[in-house]
UniProtKB/TrEMBL annotation:
Gene name of the record: KatG
One GO term of the biological process aspect: cellular response to hydrogen peroxide
GO molecular function: catalase activity; heme binding; metal ion binding
Domain of life: Eukaryota
Signal peptide span: 1-15
PROSITE patterns xrefs: PEROXIDASE_2, PEROXIDASE_4
Cofactors demanded by this protein: heme b
Gene Ontology CC entries for this record: cytosol
A Pfam family: peroxidase
Source organism per UniProt: Prorocentrum minimum (Dinoflagellate)
Domain (Plant heme peroxidase family profile): residue spans on this chain: 115-376
The organism's taxonomic lineage, starting at the top: Eukaryota, Sar, Alveolata, Dinophyceae, Prorocentrales
InterPro entries listed in its UniProt record: Catalase_peroxidase, Haem_peroxidase, Haem_peroxidase_sf, Peroxidases_AS
Protein name: Catalase/peroxodase-like protein
Length: 431
């Protein structure tokens, strides 16, 4: 009986959000306007007002789907990331242009669980701005405004993604039940031209790669080092290099939480930081400062990680195997240390990689018809007062200006040593 109540609780408490049928049309189709009508309407879009409306939405928690920590920011970033993260360089397909995430197959993927509620929350804003605001622009901008509203770094956002009327363009990515119809040979270890390792995921398995790369039923290997190899491969298929990949994960998981208790999404449970709706680099510092040990997810079916020190300030936070990949790979670790010693560098890297992510792929108006925010909208990339604060910095970095002045002093003394006897010699020869 108790388990029945527990199973019904999320439905009873949260009910169903209004507008679900508009964010995710049950007819699997939506009305779209012509490109030229969209171009004309976009010219009139009040981007400043839209940002203000989105900022209000972020903290306007609705009973149908209450905001974690009082802020929808993490939820909206995940929606935007999953909308854009389908992009693959193999054939330049995917991306948030077209907003294929609203329709099957994408809307049905296990990885996109509960994102129908995020789209439902956005419907009143879509209705207010009408044809001037495409779903692709709305979803991606909701992610950008979420980062801004939580104090994070962003670059100017560009508008002009043209919506599709259905999800047909995503058919090549496949549906989980009939993954054999795609170009994937081993489900769970798909290779190019597929973007993700599994039909139904956006990227890698959070719990690490398959134990046996040829067998979906071999289970996941929670080995951060092996996960790093898979992350590099899969984010590479999205056109992301090491710095772009690591900054995206470190920036993304600075916010929000995993849901595996009460609200069930991925089955993992807990936030990455002690302030999930505030931009910090605690996601990275936590992985450098703490030792992490494996623990079962609430359902017992998967592995996540907790701090070994159960009295730590981070004891209530968690890490995925794929998170720990960033400190179990030489190149990612070097980047992590670099950013922990100078958060401004992480700010700059994350703002740039986020912009690249949400602008990847086709489904746009021609470049001359797009609209971009002014450069002054680049937020949150301030000089870092905490520069070189972390203990790993003492040995790995020095202040740039100090480096420069040390180098100058070295050159001057070198010249003095070499030139003094010479000039003395010239002097005595002249004399
Ligand atoms: C290796 C790559 C990644 C893996 C394996 C991964 C995995 C996950 C998982 C399992 C969740 C929990 C979902 C839930 O239960 O609600 C999650 C949430 C989240 N992810 Fe990622 N993720 C990755 C990359 C990214 C990137 C690149 C971003 C954005 C730049 C991002 C942003 C987020 C955010 C903001 C949440 C929190 C959602 C919320 O608070 O509702 N993730 N991720």
């Amino acid at each position: 009986m108790n388990s029945l109540i527990a199973a019904l609780l999320p439905i009873g408490v949260f009910g169903s959000c209004p507008f679900m049928d508009i964010g995710t049309p049950p007819s699997l189709k939506a009305e779209v306007i012509s490109d030229s009508d969209f171009k004309t309407a976009l010219e009139g879009l009040d981007i400043e007002a839209l940002e203000q409306d989105l900022r209000i939405l972020m903290t306007d928690s609705q009973t149908c789907w209450p905001a974690d920590d009082g802020h929808y920011g993490g939820f909206m970033i995940r929606l935007a990331w999953h909308c854009a993260g389908t992009f693959r360089t193999s054939d330049q397909k995917g991306g948030c242009g077209g907003a294929g995430i609203r329709f099957p197959p994408e809307s049905d993927w296990e990885d996109n669980g509960n994102l129908d509620k995020a789209r439902a929350l956005l419907v009143p804003i879509k209705q207010k701005y009408g044809d001037a605001l495409s779903w692709g622009d709305l979803i991606s901008f909701a992610g950008t405004v979420a980062i801004r509203d939580m104090g994070g770094p962003t670059n100017p956002h560009c508008f002009g993604r043209v919506d599709d009327a259905d999800g047909n363009k995503s058919d090549i990515f496949g549906v989980t039940d009939s993954w054999q119809d795609t170009d994937c040979v081993v489900q769970g270890n798909c290779q190019e031209p597929m973007g993700a390792v599994k039909v139904g995921l956006i990227y890698v398995n959070p719990e690490g790669p398959l134990n046996d790369p040829n067998d979906l039923n071999s289970g996941q290997n929670p080995d951060p080092e092996k996960s790093a190899v898979e992350i590099r491969e899969v984010f590479g298929r999205m056109g992301m290099n090491d710095s772009e990949t690591a900054s995206l994960i470190a920036g993304g998981h600075a916010f929000g939480k995993c849901h595996g208790a009460g609200v069930m999404t991925s089955g993992f449970e807990g936030p990455w930081t002690t302030t999930p709706s505030q931009w910090t680099n605690q996601f990275l510092t936590g992985m450098l400062d703490e030792e992490w040990e494996q623990v079962a997810t609430p359902s017992g079916s998967a592995v996540q990680w907790q701090t070994k020190d159960r009295t730590s300030i981070l004891a209530g936070t968690m890490r995925l195997t794929a998170d720990l990949a960033l400190v179990n790979d030489d190149a990612y670790l070097a980047l992590a240390k670099h950013w922990v010693c100078d958060q401004q560098k992480l700010d700059i890297a994350f703002a740039a990689s986020w912009k690249k992510l949400v602008e990847s792929g086709g489904g746009w108006l021609p470049v001359e018809d797009r609209r971009c925010e002014p450069e002054s909208k680049a937020t949150g990339q301030q000089t870092d007062p905490q520069k070189n604060f972390h203990s790993v910095c003492a040995t790995t970095t020095t202040d740039d200006s100090q480096e420069a002045s040390t180098a100058t002093k070295f050159c001057l003394s070198f010249l003095a040593v070499v030139l003094t006897p010479f000039s003395l010699g010239v002097h005595s020869w002249l004399a």
